[in-house]
Structures are given as structure tokens and as C-alpha cells.
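Handout for the seminar on molecular recognition.
Each group receives one record of this type.
Step one: identify the two inputs.
Step two: read the structure output and locate the region that could contact zinc ion.
Step three: write two sentences on what you found, then compare them with the reference statements printed after the record.
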Amino acid sequence: MMKSRRQFMKQSGLIGLTVGLGAVSASCTPQSISQAHAGTLTSTALRYNADGTFKIVQFTDIHWQKDGPDDKNTAKLMADILDAEKPDLVVLTGDTIEGSKMTDDADYTKAFFECTQPIVQRKIPWTAVFGNHDEEGPMNRRDMMKLMQKIPYCLAKPGPKDIDGVSNYVLSIYDAKGKQARNTLYFIDSLAYAPKEIEGYAWISRKQINWYVQTAQHIEKQNHKKLPALAFFHIPLQEYNQVFGDKSLGCKQEDVCCSKINSGFFAAMLEARDIMGTFVGHDHVNDYEGTLFGIRLCYGRATGFSTYGKEGFPRGARVIVLTENQNNFQSWLRVENNQVIKYTDPA
Ligand SMILES: [Zn+2]
């Protein structure tokens, strides 16, 4: 049976949450959030563990629907993965919401609160970028961002108004004491669709690339050195085609649905020399990674059951582990039935 909105509010309202770092307590309902400023984490909320590790779980392409019958499977899978991996941060790399199934703002509110509940219940900081499907309903990116910021433990924030897209921002990971920044996480809005005369998908724009370059320079100046960084966005770059081959690890079972335009974000990363790896979604049955001129281009593993997949290719997540003061990261996939996939042989 479908859950009514009233039931949803009541159920989620029962989760008594205390936000650890900000010491703000709140319950996870759309109503109470606005009053409580719930989930206000400090800017140094992301910190290395005492053992010198920091773990990220990337969920992608959740495609949460309005009372979608398959969404409860997605929530269960997310919960299982979070319980097994116990990450320090969760990143949603777009197409979190199946926008075309939303009829009004209330639908979006319900969907965002529902699909993040497995994360919020476990009191894990989380953040997100937008994909091409999130905005296919009545709510625009800016309002979606405001909505997400009302959900506890959300670290996403809108980027500068004068660049394209909204989910353009940076988070830093600090040492265990919260004093020194150790890593940068870039979140980039890979936008949605190209203009009609071009067709296909949008590209990361010149303004966004300039923002990235300036931000990287600013961070280097502040810290007197480059900080090893990761970048998260939804739509793969054209270079994901180039990197698949003899040495890549994992599956390619569909085309790389990138933009027809190569706007040069890869070149900008090469020149700035801080990003170690990129993480995308978008193509649900690709999960490979490959290294191109020193940068690891990785797909996530599609998470949502309410959208296309492939028989025999279980849904899951990508896990990323950083080690303090190391210019490298480990990564593997965790999928249905508590299965871990570590690709070691080239595809
Ligand atoms: Zn998708």
C-alpha cells in the first residue's frame, strides 16, 4: 500500500536526531526542520578518523519516484551498504529524484526526505550534485538545493550565482582535530541538456571551469601547497571513452553518454594538478575506472531500482577510502546481498 503524506511525516518524525558536531537536535520532518535549523554541521565537520582514514560512499542514479514500488528496495540497499561500510560521508551523484514523476513541490519534499532517510537515520553527513533528471519536474535546481539544505546532515550548498548550474561547491576534509585541511572535494553541476541545435547532454561550461581553476589556486594559496582532491559530478566526460580499454577495471555495458562538446574540464584538471580522481553516474550499467595521464576516471555503481539496469548486474555503490597525507585512494564496489567487488584484472 502506498504511504500517505501524513503517515510519512509521522513515521519520520519518530526519528529523534541529535546532530553530533553542531549539537543541534531535531527530528527529521519537513515541518520541524525549518524551525530547528537541523543538521547544521560546522565547516570542519569532515575529519579524518584516528586511524588516518576517511571513507566515502557514492550512491548514484537513485531515481526516487513518487511512492515508487521499487523505492523501498533502494532504501533497503542503501541501509545495508551504510551498515556494512559505515562511511564518513555519503555523496549522491545526481538523478537522485525522478523529476518527471513529481507533480508539485510537496512531491519533491517527500521524495528528498524519503530517499535520504537511510543516511539521516544513521547520522552520516551527506551531500549531492544534480543530474539531468532531477529537474524534469516542477522544482528548479535552486529550490531543490534549498530543500536539501533543510534535511539533517546535508553539506551541499549553492555555488556562485554567476556560473552555470547550482551544485558547484567545495568541501574540505580536515585532520582529526579539525585544524588542517587535508583534501578538497569538488562538486560540479554537470547541468542537463544541450541546446536543441546540438542535442544530447550539456557540458561543464567555461564559467564553471574558470571557477574550478580559481578555487584550486585559492586553496593552494591558503594551504601553501596543493591538496589532493576528488571531483564528483553526474555526466561523464568524453575522456571516459578514451580511458576504457586494456588497462581499465570494471564493466562497460553501454555507451558513454557524454556531451558532444568537449569543453576542456579534463585539461583544466591536468593543468591544476590537484584532482586525483573523478566520480560520475548517468550510465547505469557502466561501473569501470581507468587512469588517464594520472587522473583516475571512475563510474559509480547505480543504486536505484526504479530505473533501468541489467539482469545479473546488481545495484550498489562505490566506496572510496582516503588515507591521510597520501596522494592516492582505494576504491571498491559494494552491491546487493552484501557482496563486495574489487576489480583487479583489466576489463
Ligand atoms: Zn540516471
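Reference statements: The two ends are 43 Å apart (CA to CA). The chain is about 25% helix and 20% strand.
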